[in-house]
């Protein structure tokens, strides 16, 4: 009888004990040794749990639900956590690269966080939302994302601060240059870097060449090139030199493409892919993609650029499922800490998604919200209580909807 009582005494049942899973990941990848103070590990894991489990990521709400930490300990942690200027994430990526055949690629893009009632948040200002074609009150964040097609890792990010709120102003392009320099400094190797027209400047392309990073990016239709000794032609004019029969339809890509060699002013020789959506598409429906990989087949250039869509999916996931837009802190350091926690939480959820063979981030969040952890003699068992029709956490106000066609992706 006494043995039976001891057995039952060694059984514990908990609802919110995903911290053991996250704690294991923290120790496995040595996040506790460089990303934050080691004595704050439990607080860090608790904050990640709050971001994953709850619709309200405020420190007060997390402290009320997960009672082993206080509100003050959570807020004190925020300015101490940052993935910026820390190579632990790059070491994590290199660990993935060592286990796979692909180096992966980098994507540069920025995202808007709308904060209509956040007038007192330091970096907020009136920003143009291209998704809704109007100005909104919010902030811009420039993100450098690594992906190999099935796993995404945010390498670093920079919060854009408007001129009137800082003494040392940096454009979003300069922030992107700073992040590429950071990735190269710590030896991150990739197949190529991709980005849209907003970042395809001479300064960034020159830096990528210096860092031995290949690039695949889109140009605006007024960029000047030299083609067959014809100087200062914009790419729009170059596309008009070819009739529609000179374009070739590539079934795998789904576009009519004509690839030529041109000289881009200040950069050198590049391969230009003229991409049309349809046999009789007008010039205004033509996209211009360049790469320094001069031997790349035309359809491969387009496929590589379309991989840029991974970052749009990433933005959607962190907004819908990880409370990215629900930040409730004001200072720059705490904002950087909160966004770092969201990005790291995304990595944890992505690992758990792959381990559990789930299809989406949403399904993984639903699993984590609904399981019960049972420990018997310190052996961990997970029981999932979620029904098949159980809905995952949703955020009602979602920006950047995913487009339904590849052409939308190419035009984004």
UniProtKB/TrEMBL annotation:
Protein name stated in the entry: Predicted transposase, IS4-like protein
Membrane spanning residue stretches: 35-55, 249-267, 335-352
The keyword Membrane is annotated on this UniProt entry: yes
Any Pfam family: DDE_5
Listed InterPro entries: IS701-like_DDE_dom (IPR038721), RNaseH-like_sf (IPR012337)
Keyword annotations of the record: Membrane, Transmembrane, Transmembrane helix
Domain Transposase IS701-like DDE: 103-225
Highest taxon of source: Bacteria
Organism: Clostridium ljungdahlii (strain ATCC 55383 / DSM 13528 / PETC)
SUPFAM superfamilies listed in its UniProt record: Ribonuclease H-like
């Amino acid at each position: 009888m006494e043995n039976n009582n001891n057995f039952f005494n060694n059984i514990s049942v908990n609802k919110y004990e995903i911290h053991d899973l996250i704690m294991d990941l923290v120790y496995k990848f040595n996040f506790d040794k460089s990303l934050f103070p080691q004595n704050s590990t439990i607080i860090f894991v608790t904050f990640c749990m709050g971001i994953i489990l709850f619709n309200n990521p405020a420190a007060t709400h997390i402290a009320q639900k997960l009672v082993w930490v206080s509100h003050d300990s959570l807020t004190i942690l925020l300015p101490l956590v940052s993935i910026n200027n820390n190579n632990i994430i790059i070491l994590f990526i290199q660990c993935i690269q060592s286990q796979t055949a692909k180096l992966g690629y980098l994507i540069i893009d920025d995202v808007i966080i709308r904060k209509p009632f956040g007038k007192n948040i330091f970096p907020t200002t009136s920003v143009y939302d291209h998704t809704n074609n109007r100005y909104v009150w919010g902030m811009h964040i420039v993100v450098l994302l690594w992906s190999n097609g099935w796993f995404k890792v945010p390498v670093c990010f920079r919060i854009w601060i408007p001129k009137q709120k800082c003494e040392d102003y940096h454009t979003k392009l300069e922030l992107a240059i700073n992040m590429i320099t950071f990735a190269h400094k710590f030896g991150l190797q990739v197949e190529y870097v991709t980005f849209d027209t907003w970042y395809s400047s001479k300064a960034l392309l020159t830096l990528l060449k210096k860092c031995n990073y290949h690039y695949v990016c889109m140009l605006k239709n007024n960029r000047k090139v030299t083609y067959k000794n014809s100087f200062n032609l914009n790419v729009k004019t170059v596309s008009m030199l070819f009739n529609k029969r000179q374009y070739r339809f590539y079934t795998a890509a789904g576009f009519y493409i004509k690839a030529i060699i041109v000289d881009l002013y200040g950069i050198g020789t590049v391969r230009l892919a003229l991409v049309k959506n349809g046999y009789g598409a007008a010039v205004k429906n033509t996209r211009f993609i360049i790469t320094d990989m001069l031997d790349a087949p035309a359809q491969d250039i387009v496929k590589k650029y379309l991989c840029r869509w991974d970052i749009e999916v990433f933005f959607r996931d962190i907004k819908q499922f990880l409370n990215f837009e629900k930040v409730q802190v004001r200072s720059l350091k705490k904002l950087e800490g909160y966004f770092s926690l969201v990005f790291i939480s995304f990595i944890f959820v992505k690992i758990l998604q792959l381990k559990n063979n789930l299809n989406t981030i949403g399904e993984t969040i639903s699993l984590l919200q609904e399981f019960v952890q049972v420990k018997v003699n310190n052996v961990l068992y997970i029981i999932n209580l979620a029904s098949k029709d159980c809905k995952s956490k949703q955020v009602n106000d979602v920006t950047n909807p995913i487009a339904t066609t590849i052409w939308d992706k190419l035009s984004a």
